[in-house]
Amino acid sequence: xxxxxxxxxxxxxxxxxxxxxxxxxxxxxxxxxxxxxxxxxxxxxxxxxxxxxxxxxxxxxxxxxxxxxxxxxxxxxxxxxxxxxxxxxxxxxxxxxxxxxxxxxxxxxxxxxxxxxxxxxxxxxxxxxxxxxxxxxxxxxxxxxxxxxxxxxxxxxxxxxxxxxxxxxxxxxxxxxxxxxxxxxxxxxxxxxxxxxxxxxxxxxxxxxxxxxxxxxxxxxxxxxxxxxxxxxxxxxxxxxxxxxxxxxxxxxxxxxxxxxxxxxxxxxxxxxxxxxxxxxxxxxxxxxxxxxxxxxxxxxxxxxxxxxxxxxxxxxxxxxxxxxxxxxxxxxxxxxxxxxxxxxxxxxxxxxxxxxxxxxxxxxxxxxxxxxxxxxxxxxxxxxxxxxxxxxxxxxxxxxxx
Length: 403
What we know:
The protein has 15 helices and no strands. By secondary structure, the chain is mainly α.
């Protein structure tokens, strides 16, 4: 069992450490989602179709998701500061490689390395939150880090669209590399929170993680996140293709600008964390899923810029509201020394669902277009709601501690 760690700050306190964690996570996540708004630019630069350009996001996000399984258990054994800095430096180097190459195959490899390395940052920082959160404020701190990750998604889509329009794809990628290195420097302000007693690293660590995934009390919250992200990221990913079509026919810069509207919902996450304490995690999570369903409905029928903006705002808000509540449900069911692994595994299931949606919904898009894609996504979110409500039957929050 790990020894209790000290607060990973120098003089800024828990809020200062949380601010650094949120900012570094935001930029790391933005690097993973940087391709989503620039499929057209990628296609033009490398001479591939826009459908093939979509593979850049699929590969990067799959590598990002799989890295959570590899790195998650390590977040309970090693310093959050060390994991984050290593990840940021490797991600920056891979981003530079993507900026200078003229080969689409090399670009895809660089995107994969970038995604895997970037995962080290949220893995480390999600493990850090329950260590530094004051008593009874874990939900709020989870809300803050979730907000930063979803802001990163929005910033990646919007920022890269705008940067590519003004600097070109190579210039935008170079700027992203500088930002990642700057976050590595900022992470040095965190105290090295290495634990005093470490378990031996081996296959048993990952076997324990697999047992946690299939634990009856954790399977339902994990399934809730998986289905939510399949519907949410499936909708957002293919919205880029939808906005290239009539009646919109937007370029990458316009799509990136529209994505900024999602930032208005950022306060939903910390507010959700507070509401969990008042109304319970189940009620808050159900409310979040209802908002996501409403958002997809708005986007299905949207034919104007304001309608698209409203839909994006609502879909991000719904995810912001739901995720902190689900994280709290998971944290209540695992021992403190396993919360880093549990958080990483949950993020793995969520992000893996988003990557799967990007790949699986491709044939649906080809056959049934936007209507077919959103129909599947609505079905996924509705199933998530059913699974979440069934999770209310769980009576023993600590039943999975030994998983």
